Every structure is written in structure tokens, then in C-alpha cells.
Amino acid sequence: MEDDLDVLREEISDAFDSKARRVKAATRWVKIVLVLAGSLLAAFAAALTNGLTWPPSTGVLLSVIGATLAFAGGLYLTFVEEDSIEALVKARRALDEASSRDFEVISLLDNLEEYQAATGRLTALYTAYSAGRGTVEQALTINHLSDIQLIEACLKVMKTDLRVALGFQLTDFWTIGVYRAGREGDETVLRLVAHDRSLDCDLAQARPWKLGVGAAGIAFAKRDEVVVPDLLDDSVGTAFRLPGAMIKPEDNLRYRSMFAVPIVVGELGEGSQPWGVALATSSQPWHFGAESVRGVRPEEAVRSLAGIIALAVAASRSYSSKVVGESDGEGRKK
Fold first, then answer.
1. Are 286 and 230 in contact (CB under 8 A)?
2. Residue 228 · residue 240 · CB < 8 Å
3. Cβ neighbours of residue 214 closer than 8 Å, sequence gap 6 or more
4. Which of 155, 179, 180, 303 is buried most deeply by CB count within 10 Å?
């Protein structure tokens, strides 16, 4: 659209310049032929009215002087005074240049705002990661916390900066969740153990995800990241369609884009499974998986969260192993 306007503006500018050149040439010839030549003819006519007599009469003399003055004025207008058409052309070019500079300034301001936003998200991502790592480090020097308690502590200190790094807006519906895998009968089920969201929800009311169901269940089953740019896009098809009992009326409004990352603790060998899944969702389509993003992508924040959770679980396991190793057979410390 903008390119079409530029082409149209250029065509109008060329037409105006062409018209201005023709009018300028015609005006100059009018001045030369009609004003200058007319003045000379008027002078000769006045001089020859009563024949060539000397000295000329006062009327003839005044006519000749008047025609001469008109000729001099026409000569000045023709070759000295700046043509009004040319002045208009210069004014139009000046306006076009000013408009172009104004557009450049607006573009620079837009780029600056995008740069500041990208810088803010990157800073927030680093701060969140640093806060989570610091929480794990402190937990190793104080009384032991369970893995869930440590995960909750990490998310608590990270959540504010995570929201910024994820690019969530105040008007969006969004969720950040940590799911732990566990066996329930013959099935593996992912249950929410820590979360932060725009609309608060009790953990017990959060939906569990079975293996291969939803973005979290699929990421866990594949042991790989899963991104859903727009859940309602036709290209998604039925890949993320939920069983009827799991569907809620507000799903299409609140969950349009999502990104899930498996939480892997240590080496993921053949036949082993991730510890769980980190999942973020947004009500804005293409919040995750966008083809073009200025600055840090929101997916990086989810990856960082998964990494911190894996570190917290590994630290908790290491502490537990150490305590068991220092205890006697009855569970008492030596």
C-alpha cells in the first residue's frame, strides 16, 4: 500500500514539473512578445503619429518615455524577477523533502521504541534467569526444600521479569505453568505444580495433561519443544483438539498461542522420560512461533524457565542423596 502511494506521489510530482516547465516557457514568451515587443511598437507608434518632426511634441515625448519605461519593466520581469511558477516548484519540492524527512523521523522513532522494548525484554530475561539461579544457590546453603517448594520459590522470584521477557501485555490472557509427570495407574499424567497467570486459578482446578494430549502432553511424548502459533488456524487441524470433557467455553478466547518445553534433568537416555514440561500460553495469536520478531523471542523465556526448573530439581535430588548418604540405616544423621 505504501509503495503504491510512493509511485502515485512520484507520478503527480513528474506531471507537476512538466506542467510547470511548459507554463514557465509560455510565460517567458508572453513577456517577450507581448510586453517587450508591445512596448517597442507603442513607442514607435507614438513617435510616428504626426510624422518625423523635430523637436517632438510633448505628447509624443511622453508616449515614447512611457513605452520605454514599460519596455524596461518588462525586461526586468522577463530576465531578473523570479518566476512564480518556479517558486511554486521549489516550494513543492521543499514540502516533499520535509515530508520525506518527517517519515524518516517517524521510522527512526518506531525503530527506537522497538529497540527499547527488545532491550527491555532481553534485560528482563537475564534478570529472571539470574534470580532463579540465585534462588537455587541459596537453597543449597539453608534448610532443605523439596523440589516443588524450590520450584515455587524460583517462579516467585522470576515471575515479574518473566512476564516482561515473554512480552505479555496487561490486556492479554496468559499463563506460565510448570507440570510434573507422574504415574497414575497405567498412564503418565502431567499435573500443574507451580504457575503464574493473568487470572488466578487453584492448582487443584488446573487441567492435567495425559501423554500426547495438548501442547504439554505432546511435548512430553516427543521429548521436544512444541509451538502453536494460532490454535484456531486451519493448518493446525485436529492435532491439538481436546476430548470433549476437557474443553472449557473460554478456551478459544484465552488460549490461542502456546509454547511447551520438556524439563529434562540430567541425561535423557533411551527409554527415559523428562521430569515434566514448562508451558506458556497467550490469548494473542502468533505470540509464539511468529516468523519475524524484533529482539529476543518470547520462546527463550520458556526455555530459560525450563532450564532453571531442571537445575532446581537436580539440586534437590543432590541434596536428598547427600542427606541419605550421611544418615545411618534408621534415617538418622551420623
1. yes
2. yes
3. 207, 240, 242
4. 179
Contact 229, 282 (CB under 8 A): no
Q: What is the grid cell recorded at 260?
A: 511447551
What is the C-alpha to C-alpha distance for residues 174 and 298, in angstroms, rounded to an integer? 13
Instruction: Please list, in sequence order, all residues whose beta carbon lies within 8 angstroms of the beta carbon of residue 199, skipping any fewer than 6 positions away.
Output: 173, 254
Instruction: Supply the DSSP symbol for 35.
Output: I
Place of cell 548418604: 325
Alpha carbon distance 22, 114 (integer Å): 47
- Complete domains list, the chain, with CATH: 2-81 (no CATH), 112-325 (3.30.450.40)
CA distance 295 to 211: 34
* Separation CA 156–CA 310 (nearest Å): 16
Q: Bridge partners of 195?
A: 177
Full pLDDT tens readout for the chain, 334 residues = 556 666 666 666 666 666 666 666 666 666 666 566 666 666 666 666 655 566 666 666 666 676 676 666 666 666 655 555 666 667 767 777 777 776 676 776 677 677 788 889 999 999 999 999 999 998 888 766 789 999 999 999 999 999 999 999 989 999 999 999 999 999 999 999 999 999 988 998 899 999 999 999 999 999 999 999 999 998 886 778 888 888 888 898 999 999 999 999 987 766 678 999 999 999 999 999 998 887 889 999 999 999 999 999 998 887 776 655 555 544 444 4
Q: Which three cell numbers stand for residue 316?
A: 534437590
Taking a C-beta distance cutoff of 8 angstroms, is the pair 233, 248 a contact?
no
Query: How far is residue 260 from each of residues 90, 148, 160, 279, 301, measured CA to CA in Å?
Result: 60, 19, 20, 4, 11
Distance CA 91, CA 97 (A): 10
Give DSSP secondary structure letters for 104-136. Answer: HHHHHHHHHHHHHHHHHHHHHHHHHHHHHHHHH
